[in-house]
Structures are given as C-alpha cells and as structure tokens.
Specification:
The protein is α/β, with parallel strands linked by helices and 308 residues long. The chain has helices at 12-22, 41-55, 79-82, 104-114, 128-136, 140-143, 166-170, 172-180, 190-193, 200-209, 212-230, 240-249, 296-306, and strands at 2-8, 27-34, 62-64, 119-123, 144-150, 185-188, 197-198, 237-238, 254-263, 274-277, 288-294. A nine-stranded mixed beta sheet has the order 3-2-1-4-5-6-11-9-10, sandwiched between helices. A two-stranded antiparallel sheet has the order 7-8. α1 (12-22) packs parallel to α12, α5 packs across α8 and α10 runs antiparallel to α11 (212-230). The two termini are 19 Å apart. Bound molecules: beta-D-ribofuranose (BDR) and calcium ion (CA).
Length: 308
C-alpha cells in the first residue's frame, strides 16, 4: 500500500478524488490537508469533512492549511465550475467531525520524517501547503518519495487563462518553489486530464445505482458538467483530480516524459504558465516527469469501478 497525503481544495473533482483514494486498496490515506483555490480554505475544509462523513470515512484526519498564496492576494473563487459552496451548491449535512489542530504543512513534515522515502504527496489544489513545508524543512526534498501534482499544461491551452491552469494560477510562486526544489515531481496537467472525461452517460449509471452517495455525486457532477458545456466542452467534464490519484494507484495509466519545467511568475500575459523545455537540447536538467499521454479508456473504467 502506498502511503499518501492528499492536499485538496474541495471542489467537485476533488470530492471525486477523495472518494477514489479512500476506496483504493492500493493506498493508505494518512490524512487530507486543505488549501484555497476553487473556494476558500475554510470552505474546502468543511467540504472535505462533509465528503468523508458522507462516504463513511470520517476516521481519516483532516488538517486545515494555507488561507492565501505565499506572496499574492487571494483570487476569486471558481463559482462557475464548483458553485458558491464548492460542491455544485448541493447541501450536505453540517460537519460533525473536528478538524485536527496541527497545521497542514506541519503534518506533511511530520509524516515525511515518520516515513522517509515512503510518502507520496498528491496536490490537487494550490501548492501553498507543500511549498511552505519545503521552505520550513528543506529535508522534505530527500524525505518525500514523490509529489504528484494535478496542475499545469505544457502542450495544451490553460483553463484559468489562455495559457495557465487553475491550480498553478492560485499560487504560481508556490508551484515554482516546489518544481525547482529538487523533490521528485510528476505533473498531471491538462495535457492528460482533459482526455479523461466523465460523461452524462456515466451520471445516468450513478443515478441508476441509486445509493445516496451515487445520487449526490451525480447531482454535483451535473453542475460541473453544465459549467463545462458553457465554456464549450460539451462531451463531459475533466477528471482532473481523480487522475492524479489514479497515477499513484497505477502509474501505467500515463506516459510521463522527464523535462525541465518552470512557472512564469512575472505577472505578465503568460503569468502562471508552466513552461516545459521540450527541445532536444534543453538548457537545464529535467526536474519534472510530465504526463503527456493517458490510456483514458482504461483509467476511466478503473475510476468508475472503484470510486464508490
Ligand atoms: C483543477 O482546478 C480546480 O478547479 C479543479 O479542482 C482541479 O484541481 C483543474 O484545473
Ligand atoms: Ca482541485
């Protein structure tokens, strides 16, 4: 079993990723840490606890993290895609389980020290918590086995701006700090996540299944899908965050290419763009394994069979 910490800004696809991770026999979820992005960190924390309670996994500890980016102002919430409350405006019962007192980045450091070389951190929101952990404990780069990042885009357009993906946009300096830190990184960006789509046919199957969980997820994902349709993606919505979890469960879902990646933090037109050096003779050594291809049929099938 792989030991993981999942760092989320729960979010509809984050909720799917949580469900997929906690149900996987290949993973041991040591804890879930929260950050801002789709919504505020307070909302992400509440949603995470609510989702774990809905799934019957409230024993998994939740650690609240960063309230804002390292150096910038907090950006607007992603209301179009995730609704006012982050879960497509679907109301879940008020959370009962207390959140841990320890701060998210401190938990990451503690677990990395406890499981040297054996901890995978999966970030599916802003990368602020991990950046803080590396800043506070430079040994993180040697202690952590791998970081799997849902974020960025090297070969395809962005989704928050023409060139930048939402999780990198949320805190570009944090992403750049992590990428340049020397920690082993796998980047699961829009290059692959926009090929793994959840469709209306899948939602119909969840409704047919008829459990509380399958119905609530179908309702949330319908909201997400309608937002995708509004911006021209009529075939379905991207399984962004679940694919990052999928890559830990089975790395053969994707083909990753080592390359040098840096994040534009200039504040200009290309701000938050992830620039991969794809030249034959790159100027700098590879620092990120960038997923460029995905066996989308096999992944989506595995996700559907195992998500709840
Ligand atoms: C990413 O941004 C967020 O809206 C999603 O939850 C996902 O993590 C996709 O760009
Ligand atoms: Ca997310």
């Amino acid at each position: 079993m792989k030991k993981i910490i999942l760092d989320v800004d729960t979010g509809i696809d984050d909720a799917l990723a949580i469900s997929y991770a906690v149900h996987s026999p290949a993973l041991e979820v040591l804890g879930i840490t929260t950050t801002f992005g789709n919504i505020t960190v307070e909302e992400a924390t509440r949603n995470t606890v609510q989702i774990l309670e809905l799934l019957g996994y409230s024993q998994i500890p939740v650690y609240a993290g960063a309230k804002r980016p390292l150096f910038r102002e907090l950006k607007e919430k992603a209301k179009l895609f995730h609704g006012e409350n982050g879960l497509g405006n679907i109301e879940l019962p008020p959370p009962q389980t207390p959140v841990q007192k320890q701060e998210a980045s401190a938990f990451m450091i503690e677990q990395a020290r406890r499981h040297p070389g054996k901890l995978t951190i999966v970030t599916v929101g802003s990368m602020t918590n991990l950046a803080k952990a590396i800043r506070d404990e430079p040994e993180m780069t040697a202690l952590v086995e791998r970081v799997v990042v849902m974020g960025g885009a090297v070969t395809v357009p962005g989704n928050r701006t023409p060139v930048a993906e939402a999780n990198i946009c949320a805190d570009p300096e944090a992403a750049e700090l992590v990428f340049q830190s020397g920690i082993p990184v796998t980047m699961v960006g829009l290059d692959v996540t926009m090929q793994t789509l959840l469709t209306r046919e899948h939602l119909a199957l969840w409704r047919e299944k008829g459990t509380d969980v399958s119905r609530l997820f179908a309702d949330m994902c319908e909201f997400y899908m309608n937002a995708y349709a509004q911006v021209g993606n009529v075939r379905g919505c991207g399984l962004h965050d679940p694919l990052a979890v999928g890559v830990v469960i089975d790395p053969t879902f994707v083909t990753a290419v080592p390359m040098h990646v840096s994040v534009d933090t200039s504040g200009g037109l290309s701000d938050a763009r992830t620039i991969g050096d794809r030249r034959k003779h790159p100027a700098a050594a590879a620092n990120v394994d960038v997923c460029l291809e995905v066996d989308h049929e096999r992944f989506v099938e595995h996700f559907l069979q195992n998500v709840f």
